[in-house]
Amino acid sequence: RQEVPPDEYARWAADNRLDAVFLDNTYEFDDIRAGLRDNGVATVGRFVWEHFSSEDAAPAADAFDVIYSLTAAEQDRYREMGIDSVPVRWGCHPELTSVVPRRDPETVTMVWPGSFMGRRKPLDEALEAFGRVPDQRLRLLLRGQVKRKAGKLADAAARDPRIELLLEDRPTAEHLQTFANCDVCLTPSRWEGLGLPLYEATAFGMPIITNDNPPMNEIVEDGFNGLLVSAHPDGETRSGLTAYTPDVDDLARAIERAADDELRSRLAEGAMEVRDRLSWSRTVEDVGKLLGGIR
């Protein structure tokens, strides 16, 4: 949580002649109200929806002129809390679509975008499912930003030479190129916020394997630009969201299917169509409409 006192907010807004301020995942509602909104500065907020709980709804509505949502699942959850959020359609930024993939035709590499390797990612299920598929062309790149679970991952790589670990944070350009060079994005999730890897994979024309739950299934259409697998409820997040665990058998079948060159090629074509739908221009358009509505 940030700690910016109201007078600092007010001084910053006045010095820079700000008409509106976008705040992301900022919960200091009283300070935002007193330092910005009460001084005539429009406040626009968005939250990591799996952390935002019903207790936050009323103070957030008081602090912000507008709260916006990036997925239909996010908008539905806000609506249940009495917040009429403004939808902003997220898209594939030109920084992503400008990357040219360089793929090895002799292998089929699946990338696991593990980020911080937290409990949101069903790593054990994914490793078990991958291990069940004997195709020797398959590779699994376990990508993370930290060395959390390094011991478990090292053991997995020692058991299966098809698994490669890349657990250090890398410069953005290198990260994007490494991601784009893979053939399939393997990214089931117990729960998800926006799901940036879904947009990265789509921007690279890459089929996606994930579970059939929102918001993942808002981007992935089974058999068109990826493969959706079944999952069962398995607890809740601290904010009350249902967590899901993917079915290992179903996940293994999807991995095996995605190794088929013909099917993967068709799914890649679908990914390119979805990329066109998710143009960054529509994100810019929606932000413009949002701002126009509060002036």
Q: Strand percentage, roughly? A: 15-25%
Q: What order do the strands of the largest sheet run in, or round the barrel if closed? A: 7-6-5-8-9-10
What's the total count of β strands?
12
Radius of gyration: 21 Å
What best-fitting shape do the alpha-carbon axes yield? elongated
Q: Major β-sheet, in short? A: 6 strands, parallel
Low-confidence stretches: none
The first-to-last residue Cα distance is 29 Å
Structural class: alpha/beta
* Number of separate helices: 13
Give me the strand/helix succession. HEHEHEHEHEHEHEHEHEHEEEHHH
Task: Provide the helix percentage.
Answer: 40-55%
- Average pLDDT, to the nearest integer? 93
Can you characterise this structure?
By secondary structure, this protein is of the alpha/beta class. The protein is built from 13 helices and 12 strands. The strands form 3 sheets. The protein has a 6-stranded parallel sheet, sandwiched between helices. α3 (54-63) links the parallel β2 (42-46) and β3. α2 (29-35) runs parallel beside α3 (54-63), α6 crosses α11 (248-258) and α9 (196-203) packs across α12 (261-277). The longest helix is centred in the last third of the chain and has 17 residues, at 261-277.
Search tags:
295 residues; 19% strand; 42% helix; 4-stranded parallel sheet; elongated; 6-stranded parallel sheet; alpha/beta
Short description:
This protein has 295 residues and is of the alpha/beta class. Helix content is 42%, strand content 19%. Helix 2 links the parallel strand 1 (20-24) and strand 2 (42-46).
